């Protein structure tokens, strides 16, 4: 067995030659704003990974997707983050697909290698992550939508934006939560520079401005009442947490791989790093089985979050220990260790934060309902 063997086998099975193509340039080159990694993944048919084979996609299972994200995270952290947003958005479309038009959209994503950006979780403090940042106005034939999404990964390369919106009810009806599918070339869509950190700058996480963007009725899928988590939301949420966790675990794994290949530290320390990384990956693969259920709800979301925060803590320990074993001269002579160490900490900044969710999780563990905040 080689470290990351299963992950690289999965990557090679679905995308033969992708790892060699990515590693033609240095890690820091791959991570720069405007690097070719996102375009390269598109060329290899990456957008079709989770589209079912019957719709022209590659039909990867959730475990295969997790392994691929971990492998990509070890090769190009920015690409892992960006593609997580795409895959999560695709699976949201899959879960809400009810019409022939929905299925045709999935076929177009696979056939034309379309990137789908996520306009769901908002990066604002003290705001429920299921709340919409969009202002919506009913108009003849659809909705007029305005708002600002920042950061929004794949902002430059996306073909489609998916976003949640709270649609005002009519004639006394309650407001309804809906998912909108918005073509990237829609009138009123504007992109602005936003990401100022050198870490993960290759993920194209800039600002999207929507100014009275028209969304026709056929591109609107209603989920239900705004104060409940339905199956589409729950499964989409679980997909995101699993894929993003695997991606950041991959970044920490890249440091472990360097420790093992260079035989840094003692055998016991190298083995300990492998124990922690493989335990974290096994936890992700294990909890991913909840997605096989017909319906997911608060219980499955809570279980997934418990594992996500466990992986988050493990990733921080793993990356710090691995960087320490690589040594001071490695730190002095290469920025790659510094980069991977910094990038691997990013999982803590994806919503919902462990700190913000702790009160709700504590009540849930004592038998109360679980609320995502």
Fold and architecture overview:
The structure is a single chain. With 373 residues, the chain is an alpha+beta fold. The protein has 13 helices and eight strands. The protein has helices at 5-14, 18-22, 27-30, 37-43, 62-75, 77-96, 100-112, 231-262, 267-287, 298-326, 328-333, 335-343, 354-365, and strands spanning 116-119, 135-139, 142-152, 160-167, 176-183, 189-192, 206-216, 220-225. The strands form two sheets. Strands 1-4-5-8 form a four-stranded mixed sheet, with helices on one face. A four-stranded antiparallel sheet has the order 2-3-7-6, with no helix packed on it. Strand 4 and strand 5 (176-183) form a beta hairpin. Helix 8 runs parallel beside helix 10 (298-326). The longest helix has 32 residues, at 231-262.
**Shape call:** globular
| Radius of gyration computed on alpha carbons | 20 Å
Strand order in the largest sheet: 1-4-5-8
Biggest β-sheet strands, sense, barrel: 4 strands, mixed
For the secondary structure, the number of strands is 8
β-strand amount: 15-25%
Mean of residue pLDDT values: 93
How far do the termini sit from each other?
42 Å
Helix content: 40-55%
* Topology pattern, helix = H, strand = E: HHHHHHHEEEEEEEEHHHHHH
Total number of helices: 13
Could you list the spans in which at least 5 consecutive residues all have pLDDT below 50? 123-127
Structural class designation: alpha+beta
What would the keywords be for this entry?
four-stranded antiparallel beta sheet; alpha+beta; four-stranded mixed beta sheet; about 375 residues; 13 helices; globular; single chain
